[in-house]
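pipeline: protein-struct stage 2 | run 1193 | Lipopolysaccharide heptosyltransferase 1
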Amino acid sequence: MKRVLIVKVTSLGDIVQALPVVADIKRAFPGVQVDWAADEAFAELVHWSESVDRVLCAPLRRFKKARNWSDLKAIWASIAELRAHRYDFIIDIHGVYKSAIIAFLARSSRRIGYQSQDLGERGAAFAYTGRFGPRPQGNAWHGMRISAGEALGYEVDGPAVYNLRLPEPASPPFAADSAPVAAFFHATSKDDKKWPLSHWVAVGLELAGRGFRVVLPWGSDAERAEAERIAAQVPGANVLPKMSVTEIAQMIDACALVVGTDTGFVHLAHALQKRTVMIFVATSPSHCGVESPNRSISIGDGQSVPPVSAALDAIDYVHGEAYERPSEPHEAIA
């Protein structure tokens, strides 16, 4: 086998968690080239992977929103690049129309995708010449690794390997002699995934008392307003300026701790091997969570709001420390 194409188009957290598939393939087939097709909005993330040989991208999401002629021309140009090489296998681990179209346009006689019941959009099945086995139960990220292994005929072995190398920042995100930094990713794409602001404040107060400096990134005006409300109640906390994806990644890499809801940047923190606590309110931790012994942990059952004490216990776990804490009256609102 000489060349494989992975198709995973969006979004940030899903692409992060799909990256170990590339390391698996390269362990199974030394010398193979693995290319990746993604939306332009997330291509820089794939470029950070030292395992991916060639990143193919097009402004699909931007064209859908703006319908610009320049974006359409860029998409047409990307098709020529996509078809520049013939692939031994194309592995679509996304499973929607846009990923299926990419797989269909690329040059290969072997295009593998999910079974119909496992597809995000069932019409995507038109593109495939073969199918994965039934999607494994349990963690979705490990399931992608198993599906790719089934398609190419190897056994998945060992922990997930992300092989990320970020570009060096123009200047260090934090002063070398500053207190250890804890980043709070309080914002979410959906309101039902939010953790109560009062809980963030309670955890921030505890971490400030332990000597941490809390920082709060944001992506919209509403998120910034919430970050400011949290920071106003936590001594020494800072609301960060507007940052690019790369700048946020570099900030994460400089942190001692990351606490956040089920969002892409918290998945990135896990992939960068930071001490990470992921909070689940309305999504399934067993399906979408992160876990690494003494480093990353997911809390919540996906059906109710985890209490503050659960987050503090998780922080103790990833830091290998235990603290005596007074009983917390704010847990009554959980």
